[in-house]
Specification:
Layout (H helix, E strand, L loop, with lengths): L1 H21 L5 H6 L2 H20 L8 E7 L4 E7 L7 E7 L21 E9 L7 E4 L4 H6 L10 E3 L8 E2 L2 H16 L6 E5 L6 H13 L4 H17 L5 E3 L5 E3 H6 L3 H13 L24 H16 L8 E10 L5 E8 L3 H12 L7 E3 L2 E3 L1 E10 L3
Parallel strand pairs: 1-8, 6-7
Antiparallel strand pairs: 1-2, 2-3, 4-5, 4-8, 5-6, 9-10, 11-12, 11-15, 13-14
Length: 391
């Protein structure tokens, strides 16, 4: 009898172990499917999304999603990629169909302001009053330090239904797409889907002008706007997100600065000194009109073309929405030491583009200088840069 009971216990243990190992894995997508609204949306929209990805030569589903929104421009961009090391690629831009408040961060409950700063999706709500919604982790670390300590506000969502009192509303069809993309990324293991909210699209000159006027009326806002702009251009250059931290004042700080242990005020002073520094005088009478051998960019003409192509891509992001292309003419001098001096944009660029071009040309490595009668000589050159949106 004792052997019989021992045998039965062994059988039950084996059955239990088999049941455990064969139990289906309940994924995040499976959980979302348990809600009728999302299940219906997935059946209707997933095939269409897959085709859109295929048309854009993107792999379905995206393992990483990045969302950024521009308040004044009423836009919400969706960027995707497959691997952490990959650069993000733009999938789609949605129109934000309603807006509450003005430029500037949210600082208290009931101010009707859309937050500005760096957040992530912390809630998926398939039973939202506004069709579907993605919640944001407002107030974040910075907001908790700078906003009203008792009533900072909350419940900030990206949602459908096209109404708002401080959220980011898009149409029902758009939130369906975004919700599916975010749910798949969550299912693939992206626990923190970043959502960056900017005051303006910094590539739109009309928006830049509006921000400049706003900062004159509210100078205390400039520090935050500059930080947001810094992150915007980091992403524009690298198509990757920087590490963003919060200092003891509640201000956003890029991780690279913190890792280097560089004090922000010192950085600002260095920048001021660099702007105020007087360039070494150059005697333009030394310039020649003809040479025996033209100057050469390090690596040759192919390397120079790559430099121009890379610059062109970055400039394309700064074109106004209603402008598809432009030709920019740049004049510069290659000194007898091979250094690029006095670069100047002659035509075709906005102030924002002009600053980037000057910065890139001044940062060029030394060329092999021009030669005339077996001597190194300075020469003035002109270069046309073709810039096309969507290249």
């Amino acid at each position: 009898m004792q052997r019989y009971f021992l045998s039965m216990i062994l059988v039950f243990c084996l059955v239990g172990a088999m049941a455990q190992t064969s139990a289906p894995v309940f994924s995040f997508i499976d959980y979302q499917r348990s809600f009728p609204v999302f299940n219906d949306v997935l059946k209707r929209k997933e095939d269409t999304l897959m085709k859109q990805f295929e048309e854009r030569k993107l792999k379905w589903p995206a393992k990483y999603v990045y969302i950024r929104s521009f308040k004044y421009d009423s836009q919400l961009e969706v960027w995707v990629k497959q691997d952490k090391k990959d650069p993000y690629k733009l999938f789609k831009t949605y129109k934000v169909c309603a807006l509450a408040g003005t430029l500037g961060p949210k600082r208290m409950a009931g101010d009707y302001q859309v937050p500005e700063g760096f957040y992530y999706v912390n809630e998926f709500n398939p039973k939202s009053t506004y069709h579907l919604s993605l919640g944001l982790n407002y107030p974040n670390t910075s907001d908790r330090m700078l906003s009203d300590s008792l009533q900072p506000g909350g419940d900030i969502y990206i949602h459908g239904s096209c109404v708002t009192t401080g959220c980011i509303p898009i149409t029902d069809l758009q939130i369906e797409e975004l919700y599916i993309l975010a749910a798949h990324a969550k299912d693939e293991g992206q626990d923190f889907i970043p959502v960056h909210i900017f005051p303006i699209s910094f590539k739109n000159q009309r928006s830049v002008d509006f921000l400049a006027k706003y900062e004159k009326d509210f100078p205390e806002y400039k520090n935050l706007a500059d930080r947001l702009k810094q992150v915007y251009y980091y992403f524009e250059k690298h198509r990757e997100l920087p590490v963003i931290l919060t200092n003891e004042k509640g201000e956003y700080v890029l991780g690279e600065e913190v890792k280097m242990g560089v004090d922000e005020e010192k950085i600002e002073r260095k920048q001021v000194k660099r702007k105020e520094a007087t360039p070494a005088p150059f005697d333009e009478t030394e310039l020649v009109n003809s040479v025996n051998k033209l100057p050469v960019f390090p690596g040759g003409s192919e390397a120079f073309q790559k430099f121009l192509d890379d610059l062109s891509k970055d400039l394309a992001a700064m074109l106004p929405e209603d402008q598809k292309k432009t030709f920019i003419t740049v004049e510069y001098i290659v000194s007898k030491n091979g250094k690029i001096i006095l670069p100047k944009v002659l035509k075709g660029a906005s102030n924002e583009m002009n600053n980037l071009i000057i910065e890139r040309f001044e940062a060029m490595p030394a060329w092999v200088p021009a030669i005339r009668l077996e001597k190194n000589v300075p020469i003035r050159l002109k270069q046309t840069i073709y810039v096309e949106n969507g290249q």
